[in-house]
Amino acid sequence: xxxxxxxxxxxxxxxxxxxxxxxxxxxxxxxxxxxxxxxKKVHAESLELADTLQNLAHNVVLTENAYAALxxxxxxxxxxxxxxxxxxxxxxxxxxxxxxxxxxxxxxxIVSSGFDGLVISITxxxxxICQYLAEMIGFDKKKVIGxxxxxxxxxxxxxxxxxRSLVIGEHGESxxxxxxxxxxxxxxxxxxxxxxxxxxxxAFGIASSVTRIIRxxxxxxxxxxxxxxYDEKAGCYYAVPSSISLANGTETRVVPLLSDEEVANLRxxxxxxxxxxxxx
Length: 280
Ligand SMILES: NC(=O)c1ccc[n+]([C@@H]2O[C@H](COP(=O)([O-])OP(=O)(O)OC[C@H]3O[C@@H](n4cnc5c(N)ncnc54)[C@H](O)[C@@H]3O)[C@@H](O)[C@H]2O)c1
Known about the structure:
Substrate binds at residues 84, 92, 124, 155. By secondary structure, the protein is α/β, with parallel strands linked by helices. The chain has a single domain, classed as Rossmann fold, CATH 3.40.50. It has helices at 14-26, 39-53, 94-113, 126-137, 150-160, 182-189, 191-199, 204-219, 260-278, and strands spanning 4-10, 29-35, 61-64, 75-78, 118-121, 144-146, 166-168, 176-178, 225-231, 236-245, 249-253.
């Protein structure tokens, strides 16, 4: 199986720790660099992962809280934030106010580590934070992608039972469901909130989606995935089926054939993302 040598994960909360666990099980990386401001948490997760690895036929080297170790990493996953913001969120931009600050804290550390690989950004609002992170670390926008609407597309397929169902646009309220009834689209869009309201976070769906993205990167496959990639013309990130590679990041973006109404809805989604970006 194709493997990456080293993957960094910044943010070892629900999402980052589940991703680290999933990556250990999958054996897709020889080394994981685990970074979080909560050093005790990183150490605890590292101990748990080491216990896990005793059950597996492969090893994964675990490095704790060392930005310097990112120098030769091929991939960095950004999932730092504070999900507790949603407990008292009074508006949809509440998380952005917190996560944009986290980007400002983390970006100079990424830059001074000398890391120059590919970045996958998960932190919400996904498309906006992806652009902000790319700008703050000064990377070519092709080398920074967002997890986008792969998770939303999975949720939609679970509602429709149709493998052609696809979500594009914002990973958020303005997303656009294709090949789905309105009822299925609404139910899928609300799935994250349904999960969140019971367990106060979501993790398995997103961690396995990002593992799938990493598997595509490791294998060199040109499979199209609905990840958030930069549209030069629109001047923002949003999800459309895209092919990606470890060397170049975004290779191609394929906007599906859309009806006039869908074109207008995608435009609305892009405008939502751009308006949110302006609030930073
Ligand atoms: N894109 C998606 O589909 C998707 C899905 C689920 C969650 N998310 C988002 O992912 C983010 C993380 O979610 P979570 O449930 O893991 O949150 P969480 O609060 O459990 O974990 C966030 C972690 O980030 C760490 N952190 C905060 N500031 C940091 C900094 N400056 N440097 C390093 N680490 C820092 C915290 O200590 C914490 O461990 C949130 O923004 C959430 O909305 C996105």
